[in-house]
């Protein structure tokens, strides 16, 4: 759609600023199950123009309300009461979370109209497979999957609101601070139901630094000095974590994980339904989010292929939400990007090419690493590659099923297979911190399992007789790849012929490993 194209062309920073601004004009209201939408909107309109709203299901019905003016919120807050302290005593923190009740529910029952609820999670895989079987090509199947799994406009608004509500706490101590989402919430590759990664940013305070440059004297704040930045981060997060825990409406299961490589506070935000991770500004993580945002906006095939490969990997137990020795979604996404850089002609540019297009404003040196790349999408020439997703999916499995992982590593800066700098089974260069391997956690059995599954999938796609399968009402194309392969094992033996005995042995080992780990998980629950 035209609207989508015009939103697509905005820079990452523009989209972020717009969304954060939108979130500041937004409130969240818990509604009764029997609700008259018109009455609620009429009441809210007395405080100002409602620019947009939607309802969603989350332990009952909630409404997200975006006003045109920020002042409407203050007006609403003035009119809102404090809950009576009959059985509970309340912490009198006034937020932008409200509960709307009808004083005489019976009389209004007649006017009730059914509400449209925006889904906040994706459909189960078995329902997805049924939908996929109705499509007419693998390409359409992949776009169906993308549409079912990607973040909706409503879900993105809810994510930014969660950040904005945390920011209200941070501002009690640090009036200039902002809280921004990063990672999958903003890089165009987020899946419905994924966590919200957010960070506390004090960099807007840097704007004041330039003010005192002129003139014969200097003035600066007296601030508490600590021996390391890490300690400052830990202390700030510790206090904000306590605040959320003690005063935050609907903030539950607050865990402070301050000794991690990147200290963070984990909590569950019940009003929006998100699991949240809060850390302190991490500039490199933002650059990674923006890089993926650019790749995701350049060509619609990029996101369709990433979502498909990630769903495929999840079904076959190649990825897991628990940390461990399996491939992460981030590593998989980077493997897809690399594959698209290697096509002829390439579908997306290398990071070095994006760096060459960078203007003055795009220059970023962070901790000694050069993180510069162009931010204006219009400066990047569109690809001349016209391969369909049907072709690309098969070729992806073919490419990595036969990749020389022993010798080569994956380097997105150069878009080339480079000799491995060290012996990790899977080596994917961190695009910015050039001395780090983002897939250092992956062990040999997990990599071998990935290779075997990729070969198996390439095989299924090549051998397939689509018309026959459609006549027999059998899953075909992508649908056939999303069914665990052990389930149709009569054919499995033939398909294994092309795979070396070493890989089969390691595949069996890794299946045993995986079984053990899923049993462990079941025990651990």
From TrEMBL:
A GO BP annotation: RNA 3'-end processing
Top-rank lineage group of the source organism: Eukaryota
Residue ranges of domain PAP-associated in the record: 391-426
Limits of the Poly(A) RNA polymerase mitochondrial-like central palm domain: 138-296
Keyword Kinase belongs to the record: no
Family annotation (InterPro entries): MTPAP-like_central (IPR054708), NT_sf (IPR043519), PAP_assoc (IPR002058), RL (IPR041252)
CDD domains xrefs: NT_PAP_TUTase (cd05402)
Protein name: PAPD1 protein
Residues annotated as domain RL: 11-79
Native species: Motacilla alba
């Amino acid at each position: 759609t035209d609207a989508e194209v015009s939103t697509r062309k905005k820079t990452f920073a523009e989209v972020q600023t717009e969304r954060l601004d939108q979130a500041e004009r937004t409130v969240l209201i818990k509604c009764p199950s029997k609700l008259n939408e018109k009455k609620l909107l009429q009441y809210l309109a007395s405080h100002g123009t409602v620019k947009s709203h939607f309802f969603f299901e989350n332990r009952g019905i909630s409404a997200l309300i975006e006003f045109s003016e920020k002042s409407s919120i203050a007006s609403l807050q003035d009119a809102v009461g404090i809950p009576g302290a009959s059985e509970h005593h309340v912490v009198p923190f006034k937020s932008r979370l409200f509960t709307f009740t009808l004083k005489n529910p019976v009389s209004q029952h007649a006017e009730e109209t059914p509400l449209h609820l925006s889904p906040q999670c994706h459909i189960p895989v078995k329902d997805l497979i049924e939908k996929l079987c109705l499509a007419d090509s693998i390409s359409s199947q992949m776009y169906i999957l993308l549409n079912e799994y990607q973040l909706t406009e409503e879900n993105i608004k809810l994510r930014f609101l969660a950040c904005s509500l945390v920011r209200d706490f941070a501002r009690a101590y640090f009036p200039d601070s902002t809280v921004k989402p990063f990672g999958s919430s903003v890089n165009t590759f987020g899946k419905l139901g994924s966590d919200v990664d957010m960070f506390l940013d004090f960099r807007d305070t840097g704007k004041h630094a330039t003010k005192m440059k002129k003139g014969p004297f200097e003035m600066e704040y007296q601030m508490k000095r600590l021996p390391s930045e890490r300690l400052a981060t830990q202390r700030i997060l510790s206090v904000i974590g306590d605040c959320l825990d003690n005063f935050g409406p609907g903030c539950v299961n607050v865990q402070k994980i301050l000794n991690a490589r990147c200290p963070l506070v984990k909590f569950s935000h019940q009003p929006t339904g998100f699991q949240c991770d809060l850390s302190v500004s991490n500039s490199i993580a933002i650059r990674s989010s923006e890089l993926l945002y650019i790749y995701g906006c350049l060509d619609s095939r990029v996101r369709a292929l990433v979502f498909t490969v990630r769903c495929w990997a999840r079904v076959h137990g190649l990825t897991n939400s628990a940390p461990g020795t399996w491939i992460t979604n981030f590593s998989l996404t980077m493997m897809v990007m690399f594959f698209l850089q290697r096509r002829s002609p390439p579908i997306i540019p290398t990071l070095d090419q994006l760096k060459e297009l960078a203007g003055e404003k795009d220059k970023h040196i962070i901790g000694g690493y050069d993180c510069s790349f162009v931010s204006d999408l219009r400066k990047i020439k569109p690809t001349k590659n016209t391969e369909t997703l049907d072709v690309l999916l098969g070729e992806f499995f073919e490419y990595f099923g036969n990749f020389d992982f022993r010798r080569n590593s994956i380097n997105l800066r150069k878009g080339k297979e480079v000799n491995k700098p060290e012996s990790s089974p899977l080596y994917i260069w961190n695009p910015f911190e050039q001395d780090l391997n983002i897939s250092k956690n992956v062990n040999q059995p997990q990599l071998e399992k990935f290779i075997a599954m990729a070969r198996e999938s390439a095989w299924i796609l090549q051998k397939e007789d689509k018309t026959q399968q459609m006549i027999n009402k059998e899953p075909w194309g992508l649908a056939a790849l999303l069914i665990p392969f052990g389930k149709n094992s009569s054919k499995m033996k033939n398909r294994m012929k092309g795979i070396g005995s070493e890989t089969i042995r390691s595949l069996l080992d890794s299946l045993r490993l995986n079984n053990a780990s899923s049993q462990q998980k079941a025990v651990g629950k």
